[in-house]
Amino acid sequence: MGRSVCIHFGVMKPIVLSLALAFAAAVASGQVAPKPPSTPAKAVPDWLFPIDPVWAERQKKRNLPPLPPLDDKEPLGIPGSTEKFTAARIGDPFNAPDWYPAEHGPLPDLVLKGRKPTMMSCGFCHTPTGQGRPENSSLAGLSENYIRQQLKDFRSGARKPVGPKEYIPSLTMHTVAEAMKDADIDETARYFAPLKLARRVQVIESLRIPRAEPSHWIYVEVGGTEDLGDRMLEVTNEIERHERRDPKLQYTAYVPPGAIGRGKRLVTTGDGKTVACASCHGTNLKGMNDVPPIAGRSPTYLLRQMFAFKHGLRTSEAGKQMLPTVEKLETNDMIDIVAYVGTLYP
Ligand code: HEC
Ligand code: HEC
User: Fold this and answer.
1) In 10 A of CB 305, how many CB atoms?
2) Burial degree of 109 (CB within 10 A; 0-12, 13-18, 19+)
3) pLDDT score for 12
4) Distance 291 CA to ligand 2 centre (A)
5) Each residue of 192-239: pLDDT tens digit?
6) Are 85 and 57 in contact (CB under 8 A)?
7) How far is the CA of 127 from the centre of ligand 2 (A)?
């Protein structure tokens, strides 16, 4: 790992590195307070939770010098938006970059800025248009009641962080929810529910894939190729756009050959191992009543949640309905399922 991390930093541009450090700084300064792990050890595969190497290094070497401040002069952009923000602004977890202000209604202050010290802004992670990123979750298109209930479940502990204790994005979501009052929950649920989710992921079956390394809590292509094996990796080859929090960046999910077809059979018939999903998630899996839509969402997010149900991390009344669905599924079945679901239109 040491060697590949060096190669990886060799190709990173300074701005990208400094944004990773900004998030690490928020964690280190206690703005983000990690809690003890709730996921049983070894219950989830390591590859499903890429740990940011910069953050990991700083955890190991506590006496490293303080992080340099992010640049606050040079205006930066993304393709398709006329907005400009500096690196310091983009990396500020209490002032999310709003690249497409015309594509959403009036932004509640909580979505844009959150509330110091522990409620980082929703828009910083989920983006102001609710499209989300592979290391968190899309919120656009979820029902208002569903969003409200999930926030209450995070707050009460009925929904626990998925992943190892080093996976800061999941832990931070729980810290945020713990700081939310009922009125905050209502306001943010009302804001995100009417937004429309766009298709962001292309699912590709392959034995060999571009070599990918953890960076910024996701995977980034680093040159060369490797065997995919029994994994599903969602990657970007545009880490700079990812780190500028571009809500329209497309990701690629690599899955084993045949996964999409096998997944389709499991999803539509149950195939003796599971329950056909449309009976609860609605036609084309676009959601029904307050059962959430799953079509076309990040396969990383979906797979993590399948594990969460399987290992009792989502124990609300609604969460228990998922148990018969996941009970008999092996990891490769769940990969097949999320591969297929990822190909559908949201
Ligand atoms: C540090 C990044 C971060 C911030 C800030 C954040 N979230 Fe999250 N959110 C996540 C992650 C990661 C998950 C998935 C957590 C898990 O399952 O363990 C998540 C999950 C959710 C979910 C569940 C989605 C689903 O489909 O079940 C909701 C709802 C949500 N967040 C709402 C919010 C709201 C509202 C705010 C602002 C008050 C917010 N989040 C702030 C990272 C974040
Ligand atoms: C008996 C009804 C039922 C069936 C069948 C069912 N689900 Fe669910 N599913 C639910 C409910 C209810 C929730 C919301 C749980 C909660 O609120 O915690 C859910 C949530 C989920 C989530 C989490 C979504 C999110 O936003 O966090 C995923 C992923 C999921 N289901 C996948 C599937 C798949 C794949 C299938 C078919 C193989 C399936 N479900 C079949 C009822 C069902």
Assistant:
1) 23
2) exposed
3) 36
4) 7
5) 999 999 999 999 999 999 999 999 999 999 999 999 999 999 999 999
6) no
7) 24
| Mutation probe of ligand 2 site: the residue of 144, 148, 170, 281 with most atoms within 8 A of C-beta | 281
**Structural contact between residues 334 and 303, judged by C-beta atoms closer than 8 angstroms:** yes
Q: Which residues line ligand 2 (CB under 6 A)?
A: 149, 267, 274-275, 277, 279-281, 291-292, 294, 302, 305-306, 314, 316, 318-319, 321-322, 325, 337, 341
Predicted pLDDT at 62: 84
How far is residue 277 from each of residues 270, 283, 321, 326, 330, measured CA to CA in Å?
8, 9, 11, 11, 17
Can you tell me which residue has the tokens 């219950």?
Answer: 43
Per-residue pLDDT at 37: 46
Atom from ligand 1 closest to the CA of residue 172: 1
d(CA 51, CA 203): 22
Neighbouring residues of 300: CB distance < 8 A, sequence distance ≥ 6? 48, 134, 135, 218, 232, 234, 253
Pocket test for ligand 1, best of 52, 120, 176 (most atoms within 8 A of CB): 176
